[in-house]
Design a protein that fits this description.
The chain is mostly helical and 468 residues long. The chain folds into three domains: 25-175, no CATH class; 189-296, Orthogonal Bundle (Cytochrome Bc1 Complex, Chain D, domain 2); 320-456, Cytochrome Bc1 Complex, Chain D, domain 2 (Orthogonal Bundle). The chain has 20 helices and six strands. The strands form three sheets. Strands 1-2 form a two-stranded antiparallel sheet. Strands 3-4 form a two-stranded antiparallel ribbon. It has a two-stranded antiparallel sheet with strand order 5-6. Helix 2 crosses helix 6 and helix 18 packs across helix 20 (428-436). The protein is globular.
Length: 468
């Protein structure tokens, strides 16, 4: 009898706790609204929203390449399964056409949709929570004046329990710090503007910060590098592997133009970022650059001296890369299995005299060659950089159909040994094989940012050793 009473008490306590948690987690529906007349929005507000949407790179995740803009349905791979982006056009049935501004504000701030369902943080509301009400209002105006598209994305492919949205209430409790952004009074107005854009709508940390086992950004390793769409997002703090340290001026040039002479051409997901940032005024680009440069900090004396040495060598044409004819190798290189591959496949462009963005980046300057993880250089050599549509752009051929896995590994080992002082990479041939197989779902984009699937990039496709 006592045991039965004990079980009853335990059951009652469990039910009470469950009811309490449900009450905390439950979010009610916000009533739908009638279709909003696009002409009711102020033109200046819509224009402001367009710039903000560009900062947020909204089109990247909410558009399937070749399909209508913002109609959703893009597959976003995560460690927990595949999530499909939502339709954010003003279609009332499949999009957000019956969302009020209140519903939109809640989604941006709290990660909860109009119906009261929790949104997965693949939609980076943990960054968007910093956005002000005024900027959310402009974003809402911009989206509600887009062309409505009737399109229902596929169902998310998530195993139990990750397909239970209610568990995200616990995720929010642990990892969501609600905004809005609070300026740092010790910093300048430009710095604060840059921090607001980079940490909020720009959600730079969503890619450039490592994530913990729960999929939340690791705030203790801010901007220490992460992953995005099969690419490594380089560290953009003091641990940046760029041979030439970034500063505010070089960052601003790169963000505005999509390339920089000491760092290369943007590619992968970053190509779309720099493409969209073209809508921003120079002052906002400069503000972002000022903030990110401050996070990176000043390089130490050893790194500064090495950078100046590299610049001088390249400017004077005295590096090993420039000194050797395009078809030659350095003394001793003949014994390296990757040397001949480099001489025939790479040296013609990367040892040439044609400057960026249309010439090949000197590999002594390449962050991809100097990075701790070879994923990006594997992607570039396999899939290349396709040409942009209707405009001059950096182009490099894809070698997926030319080099086998071991040849790729030999080539990259040679490049690492010759153009970097970092230790050799391990298991490169295995990484090449897994990347070639499609395991990482690599997003291939030219400088215009429009995605090309790797399956459409053959041996004669285009590309350039790009960003960093």
């Amino acid at each position: 009898m006592r045991f039965i009473r004990f079980l009853a008490v335990v059951l009652i306590l469990i039910l009470i706790v469950a009811a309490g948690l449900f009450a905390i987690a439950w979010r009610g529906e916000i009533e739908p609204v009638a279709a909003v007349d696009p002409s009711s929005f102020n033109e200046d507000l819509v224009a402001q929203g367009a710039q903000l949407a560009a900062v947020g790179n909204c089109i990247a995740c909410h558009t399937v390449p070749g399909q209508p803009a913002f109609a959703g349905g893009l597959a976003i791979p995560t460690p927990f399964g595949t999530i499909y982006s939502t339709n954010i056009t003003p279609d009332p049935e499949s999009g957000i056409g019956n969302w009020s501004e209140e519903a939109f504000q809640r989604a941006m701030r709290e990660g909860v949709d109009r119906q009261g369902r929790y949104l997965y943080p693949a939609f980076p509301y943990d960054h968007f929570t910093l956005v002000t009400d005024e900027d959310n209002r402009a974003l809402y105006a911009f989206l509600m004046t887009r062309e409505p598209v009737r399109s229902t994305p596929p169902q998310n492919d998530l195993p139990f329990p990750f397909n239970m949205r209610m568990i995200l209430a616990g995720w929010n409790l642990l990892f969501l710090d609600k905004g809005p952004f609070q300026p740092d009074t010790a910093q300048s107005e430009e710095w604060n503007r840059g921090a607001y854009l980079a940490e909020g709508l720009g959600h730079c940390g969503a890619c450039h910060t490592p994530r913990n086992r729960f999929g939340a950004v690791d705030s203790d390793r801010h901007f220490a590098g992460g992953e995005a769409e099969g690419w490594q997002a380089y560290a953009i703090n003091a641990t940046s592997p760029a041979p030439i340290p970034w500063d505010a001026d070089s960052l601003a040039f790169y963000l505005r133009n999509g390339w920089h002479e000491w760092h290369g051409v943007s590619r992968g997901p970053m190509a779309e970022v720099t493409g969209n940032l073209g809508l921003l005024p120079d002052r906002d680009i400069a503000a972002i650059a000022t903030y990110v440069a401050s996070v990176m900090g000043e390089p130490d004396q050893t790194r500064r001296e090495r950078a100046e040495q590299l610049k001088a060598e390249i400017s004077q044409g005295q590096t090993a890369v420039q000194a050797a004819p395009a078809t030659d190798t350095q003394a001793g290189d003949a014994q390296h299995p990757g040397a001949a591959i480099y001489a025939s496949a790479c040296a013609g462009c990367h040892n040439g005299s044609k400057p960026l963005p249309f010439g090949g980046l000197r590999f002594s300057l390449s962050t991809a060659v100097n990075a701790p993880n070879p994923q990006n250089i594997v992607n570039v050599v396999l899939f290349g950089l396709p040409p942009s549509d209707g405009e001059a752009s950096a182009v490099m051929p894809a070698f997926a159909n030319v080099l086998d896995d071991q040849q790729m590994a030999d080539l990259l080992a040679y490049m690492r040994e010759r153009y970097s002082e970092a230790p050799a990479w391990e298991d490169v041939a295995d990484l090449v094989a897994r990347t070639r197989s499609g395991q990482y779902k690599v997003a291939v984009r030219p400088a215009d940012g429009i995605e090309r699937g790797p399956e459409n990039v053959g041996a004669s496709g285009g590309a350039e050793d790009a960003e960093d």
